[in-house]
């Protein structure tokens, strides 16, 4: 048949996002996955590594090795990639604020293996803008952060030409509420800021901007509306081609090709009837593979049980096999693009292109994406979009099978084993990592370390490229926390806008008025002006979407809300609760560190003489852990099953009344 391709397409790079406990344990997992046919590595780093802290830092407590692997120094990098030939590997690293540091560790580890830097292939995500908007693993203000990205790009163009030094990431924008139009528009605005910065830095000759553009990749999200997602990717490709040709003068069509990897929507997976997640993942994969002209270059799939906790190796294998069945058993790769000439698809693509252009122009008119971050415009837009999405979920306009429709269910044999249905992180791993980093420091030549850090601070205070000084720090034995700490001294730290002040109020649902009346009556019964709720994010978990939606709905229900953003110590949360004289404390923890973070807050309140203050907790919390938290004194535990925010508000009022002896 002439409609078939002359030869079958090569499959995309197949990855599994992996990392936990320790470098050695993660290395063993990498080797197993590669043996099963995985064709690329995708490294998940723990939150201390992502935010520039060593495992023995106060803020790292409860977070070490939990959502990824801890990498504190060159020794950890050696162990992480032991026995894996980095000259041949294609390694993706989900790392942003500390991307330059992790790339430097990777380069030095590869050189020790004998791999030339020019041969290295892979990607550092290195998109700091979306961290201010959604994931929260930023460290420095936007200006210095963009400099780190710029310096990394300039260094790789000159030294590691096969490496993708930046991976503009719209994945978390979708999780934070972005519509397809916003996801495309906001991501392209980020790409413009990065490319403008590289062009204007003078580090790359104007005639080499095509070399920069061809190494910019994207990392996207694909939800279950797979027809719309497929059209979104075609729109992305069209706009990227136009933008790079018109704004940066790139004439070579190959350099303008839109290159992207994808992780399908993890936050769309459900704790209720988790077996439904399997078909969700398959449908989401189709959105980024069906259209040949906009097909992903690399795909990684979550596991069916990620809404319950950390997937086991078997769960990750299942997700890898989904990709292999599509690529090797089906006939997808035998045909040209299935949608060329489709009037339906072209109309949908056109609508996304037009809307995304409007968003991009609006951001550029504000002064660019950095200005749009600093003014709070982007964050407010995402909070408002997510509030609207939540409204559709709650009123049933958007159906989620097993959650707000078809909730009747048989017991699942997949979860019958309880805690054994997810990977368990041994608490001893954190103590071992803390002991190991202290031993590493003790075994170094301190004068060499001090000199390297002094040179880094001097370079940061100037205008030169920071990569050479960073590589010197790696070789000297500097740790992740020390590298980031030196730059904190020069650049300062940053607290991003929360987006709450300008977010749109939720459409009134029939029960909200009743809850608002209960809130007002309870405040009168207590003799206070208004009920006060403190929403706290302890530890390094930066996924603030849930906390922000709780804060928005609480405000709409009549609470006075105290929300200071992410990454707070238990002591800071306790101090705020006492100083603000709140009536209830709500803690949000999605990283799995709840058994460490929550008791620390409870103990702090007790020490401050406020053991009477009720505390509730929300997050991805297994039933056994929820029981432990309640035994420790937590009044209520909310999980993703509790999707009706107004009902949660009603429950908060009940908790306050009960804590104060009110009927």
Automatic annotation (TrEMBL):
Residues 530-659 form the B12-binding domain. Its cofactor is adenosylcob(III)alamin. PROSITE patterns: B12_BINDING. The keyword Coiled coil does not apply. The keyword Metal-binding applies. Coiled coil: none annotated. Keywords: Cobalamin, Cobalt, Isomerase, Metal-binding. Belongs to the methylmalonyl-CoA mutase family. Heterodimer of an alpha and a beta chain. This is Protein meaA. It comes from Phytohabitans maris. The lineage of its organism: Bacteria, Bacillati, Actinomycetota, Actinomycetes, Micromonosporales.
């Amino acid at each position: 048949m002439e409609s078939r391709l002359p030869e079958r397409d090569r499959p995309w790079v197949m990855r599994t996002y992996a990392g936990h406990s320790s470098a050695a344990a993660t290395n063993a997992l990498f080797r197993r996955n590669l043996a099963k046919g995985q064709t690329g590595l995708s490294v998940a780093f723990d939150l201390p590594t992502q935010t520039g802290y060593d495992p023995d830092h106060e803020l790292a407590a409860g977070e070490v090795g939990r959502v990824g692997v801890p990498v504190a120094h060159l020794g950890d990098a050696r162990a992480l990639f032991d026995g894996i030939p980095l000259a041949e590997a294609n390694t993706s690293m989900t790392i942003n604020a500390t991307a330059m540091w992790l790339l430097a560790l990777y380069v030095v580890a590869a050189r020790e293996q004998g791999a030339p830097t020019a041969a290295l292939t892979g990607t550092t995500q290195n998109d700091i803008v979306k961290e201010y908007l959604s994931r929260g693993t930023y460290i420095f203000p936007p200006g210095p952060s963009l400099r780190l990205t710029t310096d990394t790009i300039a260094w790789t163009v000159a030294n590691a030409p096969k490496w993708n030094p930046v991976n503009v990431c719209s994945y978390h924008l979708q999780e934070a509420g972005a519509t397809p139009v916003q996801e495309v528009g906001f991501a392209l605005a980020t790409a413009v800021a990065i490319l403008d910065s590289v062009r204007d830095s003078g580090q790359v000759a104007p005639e080499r901007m095509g070399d920069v553009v061809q190494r910019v990749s994207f990392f996207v999200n694909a939800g279950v509306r797979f027809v719309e997602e497929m059209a979104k990717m075609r729109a992305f490709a069209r706009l990227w081609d136009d933008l790079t040709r018109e704004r940066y003068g790139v004439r070579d069509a190959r350099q303008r090709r839109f290159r992207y990897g994808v992780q399908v929507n993890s936050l769309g997976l459900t704790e209720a009837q988790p077996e439904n997640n399997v078909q969700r993942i398959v449908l989401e994969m189709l959105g980024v593979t069906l259209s040949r002209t906009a097909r992903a270059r690399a795909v990684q799939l979550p596991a069916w049980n990620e809404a319950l906790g950390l997937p086991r190796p078997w769960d990750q294998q299942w997700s890898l096999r989904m990709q292999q069945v599509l690529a090797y058993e089906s006939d997808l790769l035998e045909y040209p693009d299935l949608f060329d000439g489709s009037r339906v698809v072209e109309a949908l693509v056109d609508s996304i292109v037009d809307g995304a252009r409007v968003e991009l122009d609006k951001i550029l008119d504000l002064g660019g994406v950095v200005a749009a971050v600093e003014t709070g415009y982007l964050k407010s837009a995402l909070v408002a979009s997510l509030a609207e999405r939540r409204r559709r979920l709650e009123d049933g306009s958007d159906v989620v099978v097993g959650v707000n429709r078809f909730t009747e269910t048989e017991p699942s044999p997949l979860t019958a084993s309880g805690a054994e249905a997810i990977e368990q992180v041994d608490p001893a791993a954190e103590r071992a990592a803390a002991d190991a980093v202290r031993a590493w420091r003790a075994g170094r030549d301190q004068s060499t370390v001090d000199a390297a850090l002094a040179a880094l601070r001097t370079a940061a205070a100037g205008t030169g490229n920071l990569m050479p000084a960073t590589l010197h720090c790696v070789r000297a034995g500097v740790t992740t926390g020390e590298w980031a700490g030196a730059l904190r001294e020069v650049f300062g730290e940053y607290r991003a806008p929360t987006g709450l002040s300008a977010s749109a109020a939720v459409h009134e649902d029939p029960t909200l008025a009743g809850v608002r009346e209960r809130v007002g009556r309870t405040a009168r019964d207590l003799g206070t002006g208004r009920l006060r709720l403190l929403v706290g994010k302890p530890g390094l978990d930066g996924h603030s979407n849930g906390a922000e939606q709780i804060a928005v709905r609480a405000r709409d229900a009549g609470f006075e809300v105290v929300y200071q953003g992410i990454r707070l110590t238990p002591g800071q949360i306790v101090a705020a609760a006492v100083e603000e004289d709140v009536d209830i404390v709500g803690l949000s923890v999605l990283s799995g560190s709840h058994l460490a973070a929550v008791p620390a807050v409870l103990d702090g309140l007790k020490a401050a003489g406020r053991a009477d203050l009720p505390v509730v907790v929300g997050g991805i919390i297994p039933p056994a852990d929820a029981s432990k938290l309640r035994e420790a004194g937590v009044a209520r535990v909310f999980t993703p099953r509790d999707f009706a925010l107004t009902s949660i508000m009603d429950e908060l009022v009940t908790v306050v009344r009960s804590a104060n002896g009110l009927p």
